[in-house]
Amino acid sequence: MKRSPGLARVIGIVLVLGLVLLIIKWALITAAILAVPFGAWWLYDRTATQKRQRAEQQRASAAARRRAEVESLASVDAAGGCGWCGSRLAHIGQDGRLVLPLDWHRAEIEQVLQSENEAGSTVRQG
């Protein structure tokens, strides 16, 4: 019984095709299995990063609002005095010119803000 060379070629092509399909199927199943844990990790990492960025933005905007609030106290009140120290006399610089309360009390304002920042950081850590 003699086999024809065409039958051997067909069997070879079927075997190679089966092997290729087996490799493709294995790769797709492996990708599907790995996609679940890595997808969950990616989603967790992304949400954690967004929460961290949102918290940083909120802290920065809260600090800016607090600075504006404290600086607004150093203004000229309705009676023409200093809203920060309560002096009824205008602040006069070394050159004899009038100085705005915000500029006159800049060091004190920065000290107040710095002490609040230090107190807030110890509360967050503790």
How are the elements arranged and paired?
Blueprint: H1 5-73, H2 101-104, H3 106-125
List the defining traits of the structure above.
single chain, 126 residues, mainly alpha, 3 helices, 0% strand, rod-shaped, membrane, transmembrane helix, transmembrane
Description:
There is one protein chain. By secondary structure, the chain is mostly helical. The chain has two domains: 58 residues; 53 residues, no CATH class. The protein is built from three helices and no strands. The radius of gyration is 37 Å and the shape is rod-shaped. It starts with a helix and ends with a helix.
Count of β-strands:
0
Q: Main sheet?
A: none
Mean pLDDT: 88
Helix amount: over 70%
| Poorly predicted spans | none
Strand % is under 5%
Question: How many separate domains make up the residues?
Answer: 2
Structural class: mainly alpha
The H-and-E topology, N to C, reads as HHH
Describe, in short, the structure shown:
The chain is an all-alpha fold. Helices cover 74% and strands 0% of the residues. The chain folds into 2 domains: 1-58; 74-126, no CATH class.
